[in-house]
Amino acid sequence: MRPQQLDAFLAVAQTRHFTQAAEFLGVTQPSLSKQIHALETELGAPLLTRTRGRIELTDAGQTLLPHARRITAAHAAARADVDDVLAVRAGHLRLGATPSLCSWLIAPLLTRYLEAHPGVRVTLTEDGSGPLADRLAAGDLDLAFTIGETPAGAAGLASQPLLAEALVVASAAHLPPLTRQAYIGLPQLREQAFVLPAHGYDLRDLTITTCEKAGFTPRTGVDGGATDAVASLVEAGLGIALLPAMIAAEHPGLRATPLAPPGASRTIALAARKDAPLTKAAAAFAAVLEAHLTDLHAWGRLPEGMRSV
Q: What predicted TM-score, i.e. pTM, was given to this entire model?
């Protein structure tokens, strides 16, 4: 049964008049009669009969009537729901992000996004770049903020670099400074004990890689913990750490010493699948992200140590 056939049947059932029903639907009377006839042929039973110049429903028509109303109502609701999704008045955004990004970037960004699209439901997943890339490739996420332009497990993913964030050497503010100079070279950290993030955290891999490029493997003082835990352990004097400048600035008990040029940084990127177009909700989020970063840069509100790429 086609929607047009049910619409024709319901219009005649409501008006009990072919001409009025045709005018209501905005079709010609022969076209209306053709739709009714096609519906009767498909069902194998007459639905309407003329009695003393008035259109009446047959028993089959009476039986069909409530079903036709439910079907057309469901069709209209489905169309309205799809229209809402296409207009980003509804939908579901599945977003992934590394934990260190959620406070300064994700929270204000989602606030701006949901102000523009309040009907969209958002699910936020926090994890390291590797697991997020795996979930994105599996179709469990629509978009993911990752560290590095090509996160581990990134087969089939496209990654757009957004920001570069400088790393600094964090040490306890109550202890003597590591150097009297404005900068410190990585080789000077060779004998220092490091507080390393837990396995699976992007910052752990970045710390080890950065030190190895300088010719040494970091000596571990304390091993394990999330980024905030690492900062707290360094504040307590249990070692030093390479931290994003923004995170170091949030901890008053830390002394942040810039690395000597060329320094070190981490890249914040937005990853998506190559083999699937973005949903309307995800595309709208990407547009809000672009506007948000443009405004932060124009207003000079990028966090300390952060620059656009």
A: 0.70
